[in-house]
Amino acid sequence: MSKQYNVAILGATGAVGRRMIEQLAMECDKIPVKGIKLLASKRSVGKVLEFNGQPVTVEEAKPESFDGVDIVLSSAGGSVSAKLLPEAVKRGAVCIDNTSHFRMEPDVPLVVPEVNPEALKNHHGIIANPNCSTIQMVMALEPIRRKFGLKQIIVSTYQAAGGAGQSAINELLKESQDYIDGKPMEPDAKILPTKGDRRHYPLAFNLLPQIDVLEDSGYSHEEWKMIHETKKIMLGDMNAQDIKVTATCVRVPIPISHGESVYFTVEDSTATNEQIQQAVADFPGNVLQDDIKHQVYPQPLYATGHRSTFVGRIRPDYENKGAFNMWVVADDLLKGAAWNTVENAEKMVEMDLL
Ligand code: A2P
Q1: What is the reported pTM?
Q2: Which of 14, 142, 307, 343 has its CA 20 to 30 A from that of 136?
Q3: Hey, whose CA ends up nearest to atom 2 of ligand 1?
Q4: Catalytic site residues?
Q5: Are 159 and 236 members of one domain?
Q6: Distance, C-alpha 128 to centroid of its chain
Q7: In this structure, are 177 and 66 located in the same domain?
Q8: pLDDT for 290-323, tens place per residue?
């Protein structure tokens, strides 16, 4: 009989955690689940959620919660991961963490399973899931890098509220209703642009060019993550210079699924637009939606709820040979978070790393 696993989901009541439960339930043939623990803060103790049609009561996450657990899927915030994941590892569990806390540690693989699965072999108990906006960008670019080489990436993001958690989605929806009802919005904004910062602004009917904290370099931390995570995933070194990357990250007033305008330069300047489209279309996990004659291109509304990364509007920069533009959309809570996490666990089972 194949091996079976005890799985704990840390942050099970959150926007990503709830989706981890669903995604895991859909993969039980590939990750046979013996037992499941749903963990959250004290506030959620006693709440009942469902796994595979069965009710499961939420427990408070404590170090002892991980006794006997084989796999932890976590998305409860960086400080919770920092405190609890080393405890889980001590108790023999392998943790796949969706927060940014461990991503840049040299002995922590940062993995998108379609792009760099081999990195999983170097784990020491913790595997990091990349940032949502990085995941969909490297999904679209990796097939191009493999065939034609990449010299430079310039990305502008259009990121949904959901990346900041369920409370940010709720805030956006309430502000939208207030705006429609003619009520003032600003006094109620508490979450965005980022929890814990000094000032908050409404996102409804607005654009916020700040995701995560703003740093002295002039970049937001989200932009920093896109630059350095891309290098770590594609080149194995967060500071590699072989590919130049720069980013502008903007929060837009939609609940789920990020859009990205990606400008890139390839090494092989004989690459044609059709070859780039074909490379993207052939890559597992990608869906090419690129038919301008029929107005076919990726849109967040239609990407939501799907695991794929949708790519379209691929076109050459006619002023610069070897440079192209494209538009990339993915569900930030699925491929950008819950699905990529479950997929990493599945890959580890497949590679016999658990
Ligand atoms: P809770 O619902 O009990 O607050 P989101 O990203 O949607 O905001 O969700 C965050 C998740 O992290 C929720 O499941 C939340 O649980 C959980 N969480 C927050 N703080 C803690 C904590 N101190 N210990 C365990 N889980 C936590």
Answers
A1: 0.97
A2: 14
A3: 13
A4: 132, 258
A5: yes
A6: 10
A7: no
A8: 999 999 999 999 999 999 999 999 999 999 999 9
